[in-house]
Design a protein that fits this description.
Helix content is 44%, strand content 11%. The protein has 310 residues and is of the alpha/beta class. A hairpin with a 4-residue loop joins strand 5 and strand 6 (259-262).
Length: 310
């Protein structure tokens, strides 16, 4: 690996105590190893290599760019060396500072998706392309409708070392609901998902409020399957069906450690039949909203005075 010493301020030669890009006195350049990324290794590596390339092209060292976007030079260096996953806000500020016409704002979606579990990434990609999403959830609120605090509490149960990255990736998935033409979402929740306390009462109150807000969007229908419905057609567990404008429909299920997708016509047909039966057994959209409100108030201590005024 060659070391280019001319025409630059060696901004990538840094340590934790010298994050502004200046060389530490006494460093032996003959033994310094620059972390050169392989841009093809992962979306995160490509993002880091592009950041370094464009920063150097702008004639900025890490500290100078950090000053432009209100962060430390150390953070810039961590992203450039693929040691830190960038956020969407960070990426948007980079685009503004470097005049890169949305380059990093586009790349960050791929980077965040790559932080999802490997077995889940294919489903997330198909979910982002779906025109219709039908899902039945037995224990939890569907990921696209989770608040950040609720998602954090759920994901923390797996004791991951990259919890912040996983939360950011889940929030990034939800951006499909902000499109000019978002997918039509039909969500059926077992009543247990409302009563199971995830995190704190405050987290649950906000999560249930969020469901009520989502329900006001005309492309989101939320129904609750009440306890008194008794046995039903999805006692086997949660499942999600995706339909597309031009591609075959898919059905997705999860077990303890992985997920499974299939486009098998018989499975898709069976899932559609079961979902139709679940919808028939569930409360109406209006009755479901009433139940969500009642659980929010009675179980998690929400009172009219706690609610934000629109």
């Amino acid at each position: 690996m060659s070391l280019r010493l001319s025409g630059c301020a060696y901004p990538w030669l840094r340590n934790e105590s010298n994050a502004d890009g200046r060389l530490t006195p006494g460093v032996n350049l003959s033994v310094v190893r620059i972390n050169e990324l392989d841009p093809s290794a992962s979306p995160l590596d490509f993002y880091g290599s592009e950041l370094r390339r464009l920063r150097e092209g702008a004639g900025l060292n890490q500290a100078e760019l950090g000053g432009c976007i209100f962060c430390t030079g150390s953070l810039i260096g961590q992203v450039e060396t693929a040691k830190k996953v960038p956020t969407r806000d960070f990426s948007e500020r980079l685009d503004a500072a470097l005049g890169t016409d949305g380059t990093f704002s586009r790349l960050v979606g791929l980077v965040l998706r790559s932080q999802l579990p490997t077995w889940f990434q294919a489903f997330a990609e198909m979910e982002a392309r779906a025109a219709y999403i039908s899902t039945f959830q037995t224990q939890l609120v569907y990921g696209l409708l989770q608040t950040e605090d609720y998602a954090r509490a759920v994901l923390a149960t797996g004791m991951p070392s990259n919890l912040d990255d996983l939360v950011a990736a889940r929030m990034e998935r939800q951006r499909i609901l902000e499109r000019a033409r978002p997918p039509l979402m039909l969500v059926t929740l077992d009543e247990a998902a409302l009563h199971r306390p995830i995190g704190s009462p405050e987290i649950m109150r906000e999560q249930l409020r969020h469901l009520l807000r989502c329900q006001q969007q005309r492309w989101v229908n939320i129904q609750v399957l009440p306890y008194d419905a008794g046995e039903h057609t999805a006692l086997d567990g949660s499942f999600t069906a995706l339909r597309f404008e031009d591609d075959p429909a898919l059905v997705y299920t999860e077990d303890l450690i992985s997920g499974h997708m299939t486009a098998n016509p018989e499975t898709v047909r069976e899932a559609a039949l079961r979902y139709a039966n679940l919808q028939a057994a569930a409360l109406s959209i209006e009755e479901s909203a009433e139940l969500i409100t009642r659980v929010m108030e009675e179980r998690y201590g929400d009172h009219p005075g706690d609610r934000a005024v629109a």
